[in-house]
């Protein structure tokens, strides 16, 4: 695993400066993501590009235009053991964590059965946010940076804090 991490860091060092000079879109990151997914076989089960510093596992349904956000936002961790459903046009900032299942206390091999995480359409998930098992976010929800989302929220609101609460309605 250390070798894969070293290769990933090397790819980041090589391709980030190239992508800044060629295009405002991170072309170098797409190339690095391709190498990591297709050659090193990290996150290879997914047909969309995932940033090479991110880890994705489990059953995940992703809407239209979400893959672009996953390709660019590094450091995300997505654990979908109970499933994750992400609506169209949802944006993810770096280092977002989504955990859809907790392990049974005292037995790390078994997962608690809960509902999936459901994120509506046109949501924006801020940097370093954590979304916990069974959470449902309505459409057009903005999650503030660093929020810990442990319960569900309705459509069109801004949430933030630890634990997350509604800051205002949109």
From TrEMBL:
Cited Gene3D superfamilies: Hexapeptide repeat proteins (2.160.10.10)
SUPFAM superfamilies: Trimeric LpxA-like enzymes
Keywords recorded for this protein, A-Z: Acyltransferase, Transferase
UniProt gene name: maa_1
CC terms in the record's Gene Ontology section: cytosol
Family according to the record: Belongs to the transferase hexapeptide repeat family.
GO molecular function, one term: maltose O-acetyltransferase activity
Pfam families: Hexapep_2
InterPro entries: Hexapep, Hexapeptide_acetyltransf, Trimer_LpxA-like_sf
Highest rank taxon of the organism: Bacteria
Protein name: Maltose O-acetyltransferase
Originating species: Aureliella helgolandensis
EC code(s) of this entry: 2.3.1.79
Top EC category: transferase
Record PANTHER family: ACETYLTRANSFERASE C18B11.09C-RELATED, SIALIC ACID SYNTHASE-RELATED
Organism ancestry: Bacteria, Pseudomonadati, Planctomycetota, Planctomycetia, Pirellulales
